[in-house]
Structures are given as C-alpha cells and as structure tokens.
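User:
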Amino acid sequence: MNHTRTITRLLLTMTAAVGLSAAALAAGLAAFAVGSIWWHAWTAAVLIATLAAAVSLAPVVPGILVGGQWAVYGHLAGSVLRVLVASMACIAAVLAFRAPPVQTLMLTLPLYFVQLVVEAVVVGRAFRTGGQVG
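Assistant: Predicted structure:
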C-alpha cells in the first residue's frame, strides 16, 4: 500500500466528513428554525470538531508511514487525543466563549462519531486491501 495514497485519502475523507456532517447539522437547524442559541452552539461544535480532527491525525500519519502495528497504535492514540481535545474544547467553549453547554455537546457528538468512523474505515480498508498499512 502506498503511504502517500493512504495519508491523502485519510486527510481528504476526514475533511469531507467534518464538512458534510457540519452542513447536515446546519440544514437540520435551518429546517427546525431554532433560535440563535443553537447557531452559537453549531459554530462552537464545528470549531471543536475541526480542532479535534486536526489533532487526532498527528499520531495516525506517522503510524501509517511506519506501517504494520504502528498504524494501529497511531489510530488508538489519535482516538484518545480526539476525546481529550473534544472534551477540553467543549469545556473551554462553554467557560470562555459562553457557548450553550447542552446544545454544544449535542452538536459536537455527531461530528466526533463521524470522524471516528471515517478514520477507522480508511485505516481498516488500507489493512484489508494491502495486507498492512505501509
């Protein structure tokens, strides 16, 4: 398996996943015509998800470059980092930027799970098709 191809696919699908799921949440908010509190939470959730996605890719990419078991370790480390960054960023958004807590968490969770699924699918597919990542 080509390292560059796997890393590029991971970066593109993670970016597309965050963008598309953010758009889907925005469409849902627009359809229900909810108040501005939800849009404030949506903005915070999209920023949190983008930050968590960027940080979680840091250990995944070196793991893919090394290959083998290190790709799995990188994926697990990325998942742990994603949880930590998303939870700390939610707390920071609520305390520092006065984002509504319940709405921010409700809108951040779908974005978080989409990232987790996309990363697992891309790394898993690389293992399945090439026998190993790398």
